[in-house]
Specification:
With 365 residues, the chain is α+β, with helices and mostly antiparallel strands. A 7-stranded antiparallel beta sheet has the order 18-15-17-16-19-20-21, sandwiched between helices. Strands 4, 6, 7, 11, 12 and 13 form a 6-stranded antiparallel beta sheet that branches. β20 and β21 form a beta hairpin. It is elongated, with a radius of gyration of 26 Å.
Length: 365
């Protein structure tokens, strides 16, 4: 059966842009495999001129393209599978979207650094697929524990190419890219390049995580907190508090959790140590909390999350200090309400207790 004249014409045009080996036709569907952002942009430009729908395969940010009848182009970035630049000095690498995530992990390890996407919650084969999975119906949904992506290059289906380069962002964390991309959430974009943050893998103070655990019962929270004191380990501080204690920072903590209802008590942990040990330590703590009755656990490594948790931590500690000058609106009335909090810091080895307006300091057992 002969090829439709329009398809044959387009096949020649696309072959001229990408080479014959990178274009194929089946019925009214033309499949193209560009190898660069420039080639991708040229395909999209041709499709726009010819008024043809383009349906990207995977590696997409934004809403999926609807199936279209008639002649159409299916765009695959599977040939964008190379590591283009490895900058050990500035701790980043630039890769194509189809580079296998495991290859990135191994390349970083071979250079003595750590790629924080090793424990990506999506666990998809390529880096581009993992990034795409962080966007649901176009809305940014990064919930990673790590600084991972610090730059993206994308080609939108209307022909616009954008580059969001982490080297020009003051804080390259998990929040900047979704914020910048929010204006494009109604548009479909093909990921054509990724800039990844690398981390040192040795320094004992290389990294810091904060964890927040929500409990339905306060007694479960205080019991779990007591069991997690480990002198000499990566846990540097523990703060457990009833949610009637110091409303303003507690409100921020409660907003972190997505489960139904308000938790009765929370624990905040700070852990510090080599990046390649932080994940296992964080997951160990999360497991103990979960077995102790926690209904939800948040592990934060991104700058904004840590800053807000640290502020809450400091505010609650200040409220526990009888000589620290609590803000007049900080503590709720004592009448009919039991106020309770416990704080432990590795430097002192002591628990600081606040129970019914009575602060005490006792050794950690």
């Amino acid at each position: 059966m002969s090829m439709p004249a329009k398809v044959e014409e387009l096949l020649k045009m696309l072959s001229g842009l990408l080479g014959e080996r990178n274009v194929s036709a089946a019925g009214e569907t033309l499949t193209v495999k560009p190898s660069s952002t420039g080639e991708t942009a040229s395909v999209l430009d041709l499709a726009r001129r010819e008024k043809l729908p383009v349906m990207p395969e995977k590696h997409v940010v934004g809403p999926p393209s609807p199936a279209a009848p008639g002649v159409r182009i299916v765009l695959s970035v599977e040939k964008m599978n190379k590591i283009h630049n490895f900058d050990r000095e500035n701790m980043f690498m630039t890769v194509g979207p189809a580079v296998p995530t495991n290859e990135i992990i191994k390349t970083a390890a071979n250079h003595g650094v750590y790629f924080p996407g090793e424990h990506c919650r999506h666990r998809l084969p390529t880096i581009g697929e993992n990034i795409s999975a962080c966007f649901v119906e176009g809305d940014p949904g990064f919930k990673c524990r790590h600084i991972c992506v610090c730059g993206l290059e994308m080609a939108f289906l209307d022909g616009v190419v954008v580059t969001l380069d982490g080297r020009f962002v003051k804080e390259g964390d998990c929040y900047n890219l979704p914020f910048l991309l929010a204006g494009h959430r109604e548009k479909t974009g093909v990921i054509t390049g990724v800039q990844l943050q690398l981390l040192p893998s040795s320094s004992p103070e290389a990294g810091r995580y904060m964890l927040a655990a929500a409990f339905g019962r306060a007694d479960d929270a205080f019991s779990a907190a007591s069991s997690l004191v480990r002198p000499g380990g990566l846990v540097k501080s523990i703060l457990c508090f009833d949610n009637s204690f110091v409303p303003s920072p507690v409100e921020y903590i409660k907003k972190l959790f997505t489960g139904p209802g308000s938790p009765e008590a929370c624990i905040l942990f700070t852990i510090e140590g080599p990046f390649d040990q932080l994940d296992s330590a964080a997951l160990d703590i999360a497991g103990i909390c979960q077995s102790g009755g926690a209904r939800e656990i948040i592990i934060a490594a991104a700058t904004y999350q840590k800053e807000m948790m640290s502020q809450a931590f400091s505010s609650i500690l200040a409220a526990m200090d009888p000589g620290g000058g609590t803000d007049p609106g900080g503590l709720p009335p004592a009448e009919g309400r039991r106020l309770k909090a416990m704080a432990w810091q590795s430097g002192t080895g002591l628990w600081k207790i606040f129970d019914n307006d009575s602060p005490n300091v006792i050794p950690a057992s």
